[in-house]
Amino acid sequence: MKxxxxxxxxxxxxxxxxxxxxxxxxxxxxxxxxxYDGEQALSKLREKTPxxxxxxxxxxxxHGMDVLKEIKRGYPHIQVILLTGHGTDRDEEExxxxxxxxxxxxxxxxxxxxxxxxxxxxxxxxxxx
Amino acid sequence: MSEHNEQEEEKNxxxxxxxxxxxxxxxxxxxGILSEDRYKSLKIRIVLIEAMLSLLPLFIVVTISYxxxxxxxxxxxxxxxxxxxxxxxxxxxxxxEERVSILRFITSSYTHEQLSDQRTLSDIFTKFKREFPGxxxxxxxxxxxxxxxxxxPYRLAGADYSDQTWFNEIVIRSSNLSxxxxxxxxxxxxxxAVKREVPDKGTFWILRATxxxxxxxxxxxxxxxxxxxxxxxxxxxxxxxxPSRFHGNVLEQYKEIFSFPEDNLSIKEAGQSEGTCxxxxxxxxxxxxxxxxxxxxxxxxxxxxxxxxxxxFFITIISVFFSIAVTIALVQTVVNRIKKADQAREAAIAETxxxxxxxxxxRLAAGVAHEINNPLAIINEKAGLMKxxxxxxxxxxQNREKFLSLIxxxxxSINRCRTVTHRLLGFSRRMDISHDTIDINDALKEVIEFLExxxxxxxxxxxxDLKKDLPxxxxxxxxxxxxxxxxxxxAIDAVEEGGLIQISSYSKDEHFVRVSIKDNxxxxxxxxxxxxxxxFYTTKEKGKGTGLxxxxxxxxxxxxxxxxxxxxxxxxxTTFFVDIxxxxxxx
Lengths: 129, 587
Description:
The complex is a heterodimer of chains A (129) and B (587). Chain A is of the alpha/beta class. Chain A has a single domain (3-108), classed as Response regulator (Rossmann fold, 3-Layer(aba) Sandwich). Chain A contains five helices and five strands. Chain A has a five-stranded parallel β-sheet, sandwiched between helices. In chain B, helix 8 (306-392) runs antiparallel to helix 9 (400-428). Chain B has 13 helices and 16 strands. With 587 residues, chain B is an alpha+beta fold. Chain B has a five-stranded antiparallel β-sheet with strand order 2-1-5-4-3, with helices on both faces. The longest helix of chain B has 87 residues, at 306-392. Chain B has helices at 2-25, 27-31, 35-109, 112-116, 118-131, 165-172, 214-220, 306-392, 400-428, 440-457, 477-494, 526-529, 549-559, and strands at residues 135-142, 147-151, 175-177, 189-198, 203-212, 230-235, 266-273, 276-284, 290-296, 436-438, 461-466, 473-475, 500-507, 512-519, 563-569, 573-581. Helix content of chain B is 52%, strand content 19%. Chains A and B meet through helix 1 of A and helix 8 and helix 9 of B.
């Protein structure tokens, strides 16, 4: 299985963060798209379904939790990794309950994040098989 | 208006009593007694009041019973005196009757002729005197009042008594008792005369004996008297018949003013001298012109028996001791309970305060973490990307432009972090304040201009009521505008589309100008109201507010020497009041 096959969508209202992270993940041989709020992310899903979504919680407009709900309702196979700056234990609990694959706090180590993305992709493959 | 004044007066009247009671029961409020001393003073006051309440009736009862007992003793004493007077009086009466009987016996045993004989009379006198030493002399007087025969120490044979009152009286009566007189020997004595009728001749003769007053005195002094008491005999004109201790000698006038008793023995209280009153007993002696008088000044009844007094004293002391001991024990228990309850309450309050503080700190920490984590994440990614690039290629020149843009992105994020830390420091540290002389209304209008677009966009009605000619204030314009911006922003967020915001400014008093910002939005529940000035506390949707606006505003207004407070009612709206000092004092 080629690494290029992993399609990732980074959703974060911090444009600088989303873009930089996307660039770094691309350098790690992934296909990366960006969205800067919840609505944008959901509309992008309709065009092209990614394997893994990196999702921020606190965003203007739609909250990350609501975005997670929507994703899990429409696309249960997509794995969602939450990456947020102010994650509380309760948020993590809620995210896992809603079917989030993992819950990471900003700033996250890129190698750790890459590892998680790959694990999430594995998970997705196992589920769809 | 007048009704209003009356009510005010009514209000003022009541608090006078209320205040008095307050001072009595809560002196620490006025004296500023604190903590431990407060309980001590509470104890003392309760003990004093309780002791007063329990001891006052005790003392009243003791005093009443003391005087009541004294009165009983007095009455008892009066009865005793009456009895003694009665006895003495009867003794004197008996004595006098006896003398009269003896004289009668002599007059009936001897004829006038026999008694006219000097030897017979002397013989009778001698025998009589032997039996009765008080006898002074004895004489026989004929119907003309001439003393025919006389036996005694004086030469009184031939004395003429015809013009004397006693003689005139005895002509009518059968016997007579004279007042005391001094006579020739200058010793007080009295005379008893007995008339003997001679029916066949139609004439009479008289046997007269004089008796030393000392014999009567003896009877009088039989009455049990004390140091200051006096017993004596007076006649009906008040002339002393026997010597007295304090009321003069024989034949002197008895000076005490009193109405002479008729027949019966009487006891009177008279002559108030130095708080004690004399008890006077008057006993008229039957068939005589005499009254037996007893004046008791020593008031022995006033000396209550020691045993009673000691018992009373002992019982009182024990009662006092017991009631005070019980009171102190009770008060100790009650006040200690109060103290414990107070301490528990204070501890609970302190705990709540502490918990609140910890919650605030927690919220602050979470807020700071969030605010700083985002830029940190950017720095992380940018720096990470630079590293990735460096690891991927050896040609630095090629990536120069990219690096510069990444580094500037890192600086942007660092600036964001700095803003957060700077704001945080603003809570604790005083920042420099500029002093501008400004018109509050102008400052408000500038802020509103800044927000006008949003207000129009959201179809919000803005109602401005700005008082003209407000005093200009010396304050920091920029910071004050920051405050207004924060509050009006909140108001805009709070109201629905088409809502109403009212902003007014007016003089609160001579020191403060007040700006009130009122909205008709959803309001703030009571439990949240107390948190709104805490940093990072927000009720806005996630992502909309940092929770710093109001706490920063609060700090700014405080630094400017003003104050900020809020009133809110759920579903009716919220009003913020900002008081700005006219002459700003930097604290």
